[in-house]
């Protein structure tokens, strides 16, 4: 990045995160044991695909941003720290994580993904032009809803699994 930070780079990172989330949810839909998890994964995949498209269209109107830094490279280090916490560094990792463990394990991973996305988008909000913030706000609100829905689904899946155990 080196000094001048391109907001478009951050938006491209968001596009990538949403793409990997879509891949994760599609893989979860294919392997889910529970109809609850399967339906939720299908719905979340569609919504993540919509987020990806929203960020792609946003990227067309973005400009450069020079962050206020207390030392050279501070912002670059901060963005890198956010990226290092990504849930799915790539498509293969997203698929592998969706296929590992139980439905409850996959839902816990999805909760982690949504929390990371929520943090990333919240930080990104301050960097996009004023006219684009409403789009980011809407996506942040959707991520919050995903988080609440996933927590509710996790409780349902865990309680049904507990019912099946003698």
Summarize the structure.
The chain has helices at residues 7-31, 35-59, 74-84, 91-98, 103-125, 133-164, and strands spanning 5-6, 64-65.
Give a structural overview.
With 166 residues, the protein is an all-alpha fold. Helix content is 75%, strand content 2%. The protein is built from 6 helices and 2 strands. The chain has helices spanning 7-31, 35-59, 74-84, 91-98, 103-125, 133-164, and strands spanning 5-6, 64-65. The chain is elongated. The protein starts with a strand and ends with a helix.
Note the main attributes of this structure.
single chain, 166 residues, elongated, two-stranded antiparallel sheet, 6 helices, mainly alpha, Ferritin
Radius of gyration: 17 Å
The number of helices is 6
Main sheet makeup: 2 strands, antiparallel
Strand order of the largest sheet: 1-2
Query: Hey, roughly how much beta strand do the residues contain?
Result: under 5%
């Amino acid at each position: 990045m080196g000094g001048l930070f391109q907001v478009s780079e951050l938006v491209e990172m968001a596009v990538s995160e949403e793409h990997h989330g879509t891949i994760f949810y599609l893989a979860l839909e294919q392997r889910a044991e529970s109809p609850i998890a399967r339906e939720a994964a299908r719905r979340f995949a569609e919504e993540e695909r919509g987020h990806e498209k929203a960020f792609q269209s946003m990227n067309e109107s973005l400009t450069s941003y020079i962050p206020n830094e207390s030392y050279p490279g501070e912002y670059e280090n901060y963005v890198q720290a956010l990226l290092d916490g990504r849930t799915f560094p790539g498509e293969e990792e997203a698929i592998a994580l969706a296929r590992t463990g139980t439905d409850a394990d996959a839902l816990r991973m999805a909760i982690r993904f949504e929390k990371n996305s929520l943090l990333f988008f919240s930080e990104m909000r301050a960097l996009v032009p004023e006219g684009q913030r409403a789009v980011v706000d809407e996506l942040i609100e959707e991520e919050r809803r995903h988080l609440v829905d996933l927590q509710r689904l996790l409780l349902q899946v865990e309680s049904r699994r507990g019912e099946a155990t003698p």
